[in-house]
Specification:
Elements lengths: L15 E12 L2 E13 L4 E5 L6 H8 L7 E6 L2 E2 L5 H11 E4 L11 H11 L4 H14 L15 H12 L6 E5 L7 H18 L2 E5 L3 H6 L2 E6 L2 E7 L7
Parallel strand pairs: 3-8, 3-9, 6-7, 7-8
Antiparallel strand pairs: 1-2, 1-4, 4-5, 9-10
Helix pairs in contact: 3-4, 3-5, 4-5, 5-6
């Protein structure tokens, strides 16, 4: 389903764009079409949520936005880059620089402190000790964990671990952050606080977030809501975005 031309254009170009995307998986010699020709754009500094029943294609689309999976047909553009033109090595480097990931199970390294988990992507990127020493404390302060920097993940609550995961996702100043059901393993109060934090990150750092979620609070907080069914976009609702000075 193509988005209507009557939609008010974004002030800036999209952070990510899927055009004419199709994807089929083969299981036991049976071909199963998962995405059947989808056009989606992600606006800058925008909170986007994918909705739909199980099997509607949400995770597959997130994997395409995250440059983890490639479409059989169509084009994926992230941060003005046509992803299909990149080699595997270039794609890995591009993904590390431009895309952050937040996981349901937090995916923190258990032997590293909160500080070290956030620092880890910067170490992989070869950032200097000075650059790391400036960036990591700022991120931990932004997510409200400055006083728990030395704690291991096992010494943190679920909400605190998710805050570390958010800080880590932002470490390399990505254009886009991707999350699959980020509040699913949290109680309602903790989930609400994480949601408020992510909204704050959108506004503070002007980063676009795209999620899949069934959480009503996440859906209410979204700027853009994209409804999927059977591998097709059924409906898109967009709120006006506040202009950035």
């Amino acid at each position: 389903m193509t988005e209507p031309n009557t939609e008010q254009p974004a002030v800036r170009g999209p952070v990510a764009l899927l055009t004419g995307v199709e994807k089929t998986y083969t299981m036991d010699s049976v071909s199963v079409p998962v995405i059947k020709g989808v056009d989606i754009l992600v606006r800058p500094a925008c909170f986007t949520v994918l909705l739909g029943p199980s099997g509607s294609g949400k995770t597959t689309l997130l994997n395409m936005f995250g440059c983890i999976d490639k479409p059989d047909k169509g084009e994926v553009i992230v941060a003005d880059c046509k992803v299909a033109a990149l080699s595997d090595d270039e794609l890995s480097d591009f993904r590390a620089k431009n895309i952050g990931f937040i996981f349901q199970n937090f995916n923190l390294l258990p032997v590293l402190s909160a500080y070290e988990n956030v620092e880890y992507p910067l170490l992989l990127a070869g950032k200097s000790a000075k650059a790391r020493g400036e960036r990591v404390p700022r991120l931990l302060e932004a997510v409200g964990l400055a006083d728990l920097a030395k704690n291991l993940p096992g010494q943190l609550s679920g909400g605190q671990r998710q805050r570390v995961a958010i800080a880590r996702a932002l470490a390399r100043k990505p254009k886009l952050v991707i999350a699959d059901e980020p509040t699913a393993n949290l109680d309602s109060v903790t989930g609400a606080s994480i949601l408020a934090l992510m909204r704050h990150m959108v506004n503070r750092f002007e980063i676009s977030f795209i999620f899949s979620s069934h959480d009503r609070e996440v859906i209410k907080a979204a700027d853009d809501t994209i409804f999927l069914k059977d591998g097709l976009v059924q409906n898109i609702k967009r709120k006006p975005l506040r202009s950035t000075p």
